[in-house]
User: What shape does this take?
Amino acid sequence: MSTLSTSLPGGTWTLGDLTVTRFGYGAMQLAGPGVMGPPADHDSAVAVLREVADLGITHIDTAGAYGPRVTNLLIREALHPYAESLHIATKVGATRDEHGGWPPARQPEDLRRAVHENLETLGLDVLDLVNLRLGDAQGPRPGSLAEPFETLVELQRQGLIRHLGVSNATAEQVAEARTIAPIVCVQNMYNLAYRQDDELIDELAEEGIAYVPFFPLGGFSPLQSSALSTVAARLDATPMSVALAWLLQRSPNILLIPGTSSLTHLRENVGGAGLSLSDEELAELDKIGR
Assistant: This one.
């Protein structure tokens, strides 16, 4: 962990040689409906990104497939030239079709094209962090990642990528990636109700590898949502605040990337994640996903 001071909840973490705030920002919601096309309010999207930087958040998560290209171009418009402390993570391995689907695009030529497109749309000479997106829209799928991951390692050797990670991956794929080249993060679905990666998170923490959960409120049953709402009401907080605070307290290697297209929600998320949960509250919340 770095000692860089920050007033954001959770402090900082180091991704390889990059220090980032554990409270980050996910840009997906800045694109249009279904993560397709431009935002309904372009100026508002730019304002949100500028507020992200003003709040001191130094980890922004994006992907060329968002829009496609929409969120990357917004980030560039709002924040380029980038502050030295700001680090942008992107994903490759999926594209978009005319129906709004996310077909895999993991052939070597797909990945090379995607990396060059990300460099161009973000206005960068080198990408700080590239996650290889595996599986599909339904979740991780077993199988070797060797060919696509080795393609990214080759691009890293060419100086186009600083650090590598994997997204939507099984524990076996994480282990396989680590036999090929170092990774600095794993980005998977995980939250209070969806706890499949508990063991993996603890293993990665021991190795100093970040875990970046997406969908902090995704996959809840009505019963689980009700249990969360009960705790949130008692704390006079929103369910999202409690979910984010729980993630930050779950393990020091967890980095948050909640997304929003609203300035109000952005500020609420930052404030909410700083909620301090007692041992009793943590124990009660722990029952939700078990």
